Amino acid sequence: MNEQLSAEQVLKEKGFFVTTTSGVSMLPLFSDRRDRIVIRPVADRLKKYDVPLYRRGESLVLHRVIGVRENHYIIRGDNCIERETVKDEQIVGVLCEFYRKDKHYTVNDFSYRLYSRLWVFISPALIAFKKARSFLSRIYHKIIKK
Amino acid sequence: MKIKKGFVMQKIGDTTVVVSTGELSREFHGMIELNQTAADIWSYFADGLSQEEAAKKLSEEYGISLEKAQEDIAKIANKMLQAGVFEDE
Fold first, then answer.
1. Could B26 and A33 be called an inter-chain contact, meaning their C-beta atoms sit closer than 8 Å?
2. Strand runs (DSSP E) across A101-137, as ranges?
3. Who's near B62: CB < 8 A, 6+ residues apart?
4. How far does chain B reach from its first CA to its final CA, in angstroms?
5. Complex confidence, ipTM
6. Residue A99 touches chain B, beta carbons under 8 Å
7. Pairwise CB contact (< 8 Å): B79 & A19
8. What does the alpha-carbon distance between residue B7 and residue A124 come to, in Å, rounded to a whole number?
9. Does the beta carbon of A106 lie under 8 angstroms from any beta carbon of chain B?
10. Which of B10, B16, B31 should we substitute to test contact with A (largest number of A Cβ atoms within 10 Å)?
11. In 10 A of CB A21, how many CB atoms?
């Protein structure tokens, strides 16, 4: 009960890894320290809309694939502006199920599939809005300071 | 013995695991795997039963002697204690 294994070791040994989400980068899907995710090993290359758990240095990150390239993926958190490049060797596993506010979902559920596709579709507009808001906020604060 | 607030027991296929949520997840990372007996014992403690009451319930539910149940409960409770599952009373 008190063995300390890494996510990679647990996945290899048990075939799944359960953890609680932390941070806000996957809002509105996952809230900080509220929702539980079930990660399983990756059998093949990831597809667009998949949500892999991957290594960024020592950290484990859970973000969404928004583009698949020959040697890497373009990945971005649902609540993030910046995208990043992730290689296959960084991938630890992929999201298969989750408990959001205690309700169970799988990534094959219609509601989740609809959400993921819609969210990726509207994200350029959301990002443009966030950037514009940030720009206007900077200008406003400069004027106020003066 | 009271289990800390924030632990959630989850059934994944045939396996039962416990993970931490909320503020507890800042201090407790990872996942605890439980076999069926350990999962039942966990539930007894989560329901607020004392070690003695849990042993009695385990003895009734599994049809084993009270001594054997006490032994099993003590073993699991000790592991839970080492894993930092219980609140200080």
1. yes
2. 103-106
3. B37, B69
4. 8
5. 0.84
6. yes
7. no
8. 38
9. no
10. B31
11. 23
Per-residue buried b or exposed e for A65-91, using 16+ beta carbons within 10 Å of the residue's own CB: bbeeeeeebebbbbbbeebeebeeebb
B80 interaction partners in chain A (CB closer than 8 Å)? 1
Letter for the amino acid at B80?
Answer: M
Domain range summary for chain A, segments of one domain joined by +:
7-145
Contact check, Cβ <8 Å, A18/B79:
no
The rounded distance, in Å, linking the Cα atoms of B35 and B71 is 16
Q: Tens-digit pLDDT profile for chain B (89 aa)?
A: 789 999 999 999 889 999 999 999 998 888 899 999 999 999 999 999 999 999 999 999 999 999 999 999 999 999 999 888 998 66
Q: What is the pLDDT of residues A2-58, one digit of tens each?
A: 456 789 999 999 999 999 999 999 999 999 999 999 999 999 999 999 999 999 999
Q: Is B4 on the interface with A (CB under 8 A)?
A: no
- Cβ within 8 Å of A, B 27-86: 29-34, 38, 79-80, 82-83
Domain over B7-82 is classified CATH 1.10.10? yes
Tokens of B29: 């990372």
What tokens does B78 get? Answer: 């000790």
| Cβ contact A51:A66 at 8 Å | no
Three-state secondary structure call for residue B50: coil
The CATH topology of domain A7-145 is Umud Fragment, subunit A (2.10.109)
